[in-house]
Amino acid sequence: MKIRIGHLYPDHLNIYADRGNMAVLARRAEWRGIGFEWQGIGPGEPLDPAAFDLLYVGGGQDREQALVAPDLAARGQALEEALSRGAAILAVCGGYQLLGRFYRDRAGVELPGAGIFDHHTIAGEGRMIGDVLLDCELQPDLRRPLAGFENHAGRTILGDRAEPLGRVVAGFGNDGRSGFEGCRRGRAIGTYLHGPLLPRNPWFADWLLAHALTGPTGEPPELEPLSDDLEADAQHVSAERARSRGGRGLS
Amino acid sequence: MRLALEIALARAAGRLSRLAARGGGTTIPGRILDSLDPEAVGTLASKLPAGTALVSATNGKTTTSAMVAEILGPRVRLAHNRAGANLVSGVASTLLAARGAELGLFEVDEGALPDVARRVRPRAVCFANLFRDQLDRYGELESIAEGWRRAVAALPQETRVIVNADDPLLAQLTGEREGLVTFGLDDPSVARERLPHAADSKYCLVCGTPYDYAAAYVGHLGDFRCPNCGHRRPPLGIAARDIHLEGLERSTFELATPEGTTRVDLPLPGLYNVYNALAAASLALTLGASLDEVREGLGRFRAAFGRFERIAVGDKAVIVLLVKNPAGANEAIRTLVDGNPPRLAMIALNDDIADGRDVSWIWDVDFEPLFGGLERLVAGGARAEELALRAKYGGLAPDRIEVARPLERALDRALELTPAGGELVVLPTYTAMLALRKITAERGFVRPYWEEAAA
Fold first, then answer.
1. Are B114 and B148 in contact (CB under 8 A)?
2. pLDDT tens-digit readout, B137-164
3. Which domains does chain B have, with CATH numbers?
4. Span A2-245: which CATH code?
5. What are the strands, taking DSSP E only, across B64-220?
6. CA of A202: which chain B residue's CA is closest?
7. Would you name the residues of A annotated as active-site residues?
8. Given an 8 Å threshold on Cβ–Cβ distance, is A64 in contact with B360?
9. Are B301 and B67 in contact (CB under 8 A)?
10. pTM (2 decimals)?
11. Is some CB atom of chain A closer than 8 A to the CB atom of B361?
12. Taking CB atoms and an 8 Å limit, are B360 and A62 in contact across chains?
């Protein structure tokens, strides 16, 4: 068994420790004897929809993000095909915004996104910065917390068909008012949570690994449990931070 | 008359702050003065007969300004915010405390630079580098750069600007201003093979093409050139050549300037300290120092607190290396590992505002060369577990990692693991460094930092 990861724009979008998310996926695969293949995909480079089990898009500073945005927007079809072939997607922060329908900047100009998620993002006054805690229920028997950090000026508005990743327990979330964070479409997840997300939320790293390894129709494999005491302690501290000092919502 | 009264009030507050053991009173007097009279900072600065010089950078501003103070100290009386209080309040407090000073010398926080420059109308400003740093506090690099761009445009015409030409963003934002002083490294033998993971300004600011580096020195600093549009490093007015890095002890280099060339023997390790020394030399020369004064001042420099500082603790020594962002931490680690790779280290990660509440930056640091040689890591501070995870997923076996959130406990444990006569390397974030200093001061090993600053 092996997992093949396609990492979009690793040289441009790497601001909030996206490397940490990769390290967690790689180690947790390795510790279970699952092979791990990683490939970076830069602007203009081909993306074979059949070649990957998990596609990853990270976050960048505005300048770098603007450099890759048109390239990503043009990949909507390839990403759709990868999804229909059973690939999972994780998009964080800027990557999450760019996979929506469009992004409207401060001047009112709309930049098209890849259209994978049914949401759009509007640049707002003031950044939403702080620790965040979510309550997620990705399936009826799996209700778990996700703890992270958010730092975004964009307000992301989910469309009628869109499902959020979780409910905000503490922090701002998608837009500071809806009470929701992130977006989920089957095995594709978009979120503002970095910090990075996966080291302190190993249950979610394993959920992604399992679903990436599933194939288009099968059941996700049972992954061998790992010792996650340190991870649990880190999540606990991070969750406490969100409760005591996370964003309080916008009026 | 009104200003005199305000000054008296503000100074009294500083004494109260020290009496109340709230710290050194390095910011409170200035904060009071500034709220009483926002014009006062400018008025006080304008009374300095030799004017004011500012140093700003993501990394090295404390060290660089301390070097300038060492060079100029014998010649002029300085008002210098040595303890690192580098917002408007710290500048104001320093001006209040420094009676009879001739020259103001201030390290200035990157975000506060435009405001401070507007108020004090500096005689010279040194822009030394910009790296990604505490995005939750400073925002993105581009927003700091935009503030600096506007600050440069608003400077009085006679203000001299000194810039690190190896930083593409700084070279671009200072443009071709009259009297501009450019400095940079000119020795490919000490360059890195490739840009580090967290390199920032690596795409051409004009056309977006990745820069070609004839030499990349620290982070994205180097001899850059765009293969597409030709945007490149401007010519160097002042350069460091023939650089020799000698372990954790010292570095030497040839300082080439329009006034001549001299060999500098700097008792500090690491290429980033060569940059600091070069920035300090360029600023000091612009302020009228001679080459001899520069060489001698740099030659007798001692590390600013927490910057490769050695503290004797009984028969052991603690070496403290402040880490606060990926570029700075990468260089501290590179210098450490190039010297004598430690087998034991303590890393202390706090997440207060001054450290950055977002701890994700630790994943952008290339810790792996350090982890590779460790038999034991003690992780301390409020976010010790995050640091431990960084090590675990960075390849350090979990049984080599110990977690002790309270800093005193972490320090005691790390000292216990240090062999007699040995050295313990401690890498703390900013507030963890202050806390560790307090602990060692209470045990009588170092003086409180405000006394150190006054010495």
1. yes
2. 777 788 899 999 999 999 999 999 999 9
3. 39-299 (3.40.1190.10), 307-454 (3.90.190.20)
4. 3.40.50.880
5. 78-80, 103-107, 124-127, 160-164, 181-185, 212-218
6. B389
7. 93, 194
8. no
9. yes
10. 0.86
11. yes
12. no
